[in-house]
Amino acid sequence: MVLLFYSEEDDPVAWKAALEARLPDLEVRVWPRIGDPREIEAALVWRPPPGMLAELPNLRAIFSLGAGIDALLADLTLPELPLCRMVDPSLTRSMSEYALTLALFYHRRLDLYEERQRAARWRMEMPRPAAETTVGIMGLGELGGDAARTLAAHGFRVRGWSRSRKRIAGVESCAGGKEFDRFLDGLDIVICLLPLTPETENILDAGLFARLAPGACLVHLARGAHLVEQDLLDAVQRGRLRGAVIDVFREEPLPPDHPFWRHPRIRVTPHTASYSLPETGAEVVADNIRRLRDGRPLRHLVRRERGY
Ligand code: NDP
Ligand code: OXD
Is residue 305 domain-resident? Predict the structure, then answer.
């Protein structure tokens, strides 16, 4: 089988080697050296140019290098083929690590001490146990579910929100629109790990910020279009929010003149919250390629009608 690899961010050499080591019959062709497009039966891609996959007449399945497939679904020419997203232990572990890091950053008030350092001001706040900080996780799927477990294991009070009810030890589950207000009520830190869909676009807005505990913090790790940027600037300006760490943006890379770059209470990271290692990610893709070859059901299929 021939597989096309396209990504401007992932290392094609490492992925090709990891895949071909697991599947001796597989030939990986790295864009733009694709050879005869008619020979390509599978594609492993991250943000391919719109229209690219429609040019492959014998494509049978699309594998995403990312967990979020919103950019793929936005391509109106995307072939109606099985589409599988990335679910990979290294992606999950690194996301939970980042979520825990940032929850601890705010819980231990490092933002405050940064400000005080700039003013050469020596003043200590008595630390409080993690159990006194309530963290809300929006999205309790592969990533949000593991992040919730990790934070709960660390001792935070954790609440999660998803479409369907979840049972996760130490995590209060809120489900659907009816329980959204209960989920938000009094949160000290909110972490967004939702997929971007028509229902979740612009969900991080002034209305949501107003329901959190006064001086709450936002950690946004999902997609730029979840966030109404002006509402965040206003909420931080007015002190409704204490601060935010934003990893994902409507426009990436974030333009140099964007107000988030220089805002003292908004921290920017360059879409780096989590990553797939080729060694573990290739295992997941190889399993699906074997399934495709043998006519068995694929794993991690996107349900297009839901948008994730
Ligand atoms: P999953 O599909 O496994 O989980 C999605 C979760 O969101 C599910 O719990 C789902 O509920 C919930 N959900 C979806 N729509 C709604 C809604 N309308 N209301 C309430 N809950 C909803 O996705 P992953 O956990 O694998 O990934 C989540 C997102 O993280 C990705 O889509 C991507 O945008 C982002 N991401 C960001 C990265 C970064 O580096 N910044 C890296 C990787 C991913 P239910 O369980 O009931 O279906
Ligand atoms: C993803 C991402 O969706 O890296 O996997 O954003």
Answer: no
Q: Is the CB of 45 under 6 A from ligand 2?
A: no
The domain containing residue 39 runs over which residues?
Answer: 2-88+276-294
Residue 238 lies in a domain: yes
Active-site option among 267, 271, 290, 291? 271
What average pLDDT does the chain have?
98
How far apart, in Å, are the Cα atoms of 172 and each of 91, 102, 181, 182? 24, 20, 14, 11
Q: Which CATH number fits the domain that encloses residue 215?
A: 3.40.50.720
pLDDT digits (tens, 9 = 90+) for 227-246: 999 999 999 999 999 999 99
Measured from the alpha carbon of residue 148, the closest ligand is 1
Q: What is the 3-state secondary structure (H, E, C) of 115-154?
A: HHHHCCCCCCCCCCCHHHCEEEEECCCHHHHHHHHHHHHH
Question: How many domains is the chain built from?
Answer: 2
Cβ–ligand 1 distance for 63 under 6 Å, the answer no
Question: Is the CB–ligand 2 distance for residue 65 below 6 Å?
Answer: no
What's the average model confidence in pLDDT over 57-66? Answer: 98
Section 76-95 average pLDDT: 98
Q: Is 240 a catalytic residue?
A: no
